């Protein structure tokens, strides 16, 4: 999967990365949730590299995704965008996958 980061998102992420440990990366995560009506919930968090993760480097940032998340997105390209009124957005060529995302600590 190819990941593109808009200049707006890149500026936000680089500012947030200044205070972070260089061994941490940004995980794009999709998780199947729900009961009778299943849906995929997306999140962004600081994380460590996993054995089977796809890595994508954009300038001084490294993005991670597992195979399940790639399947949930269902596209070969993904754009990470930022809008002040919406937060971070994940956009595929077919649709806005998620919006209103906040980059957070994984366990916090």
UniProtKB/TrEMBL annotation:
InterPro entries: ATAP_core_dom (IPR000361), HesB-like_dom_sf (IPR035903)
Source domain of life: Bacteria
Pfam families found in the cross-reference section: Fe-S_biosyn
Residue ranges annotated for the Core domain, each copy included: 1-100
Protein name from the UniProt record: Core domain-containing protein
């Amino acid at each position: 999967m190819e990941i593109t980061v808009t200049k707006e998102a890149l500026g936000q992420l680089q500012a947030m990365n200044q205070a972070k440990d260089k061994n941490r990366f940004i995980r794009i995560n999709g998780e199947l949730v729900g009961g009778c009506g299943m849906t995929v919930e997306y999140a962004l968090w600081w994380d460590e590299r996993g054995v089977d993760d796809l890595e994508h480097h954009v300038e001084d940032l490294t993005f991670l995704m597992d195979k399940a998340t790639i399947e949930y997105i269902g596209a070969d390209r993904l754009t990470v965008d930022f809008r002040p009124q919406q937060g971070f957005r994940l956009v595929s060529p077919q649709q806005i996958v998620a919006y209103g995302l906040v980059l957070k600590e994984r366990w916090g």
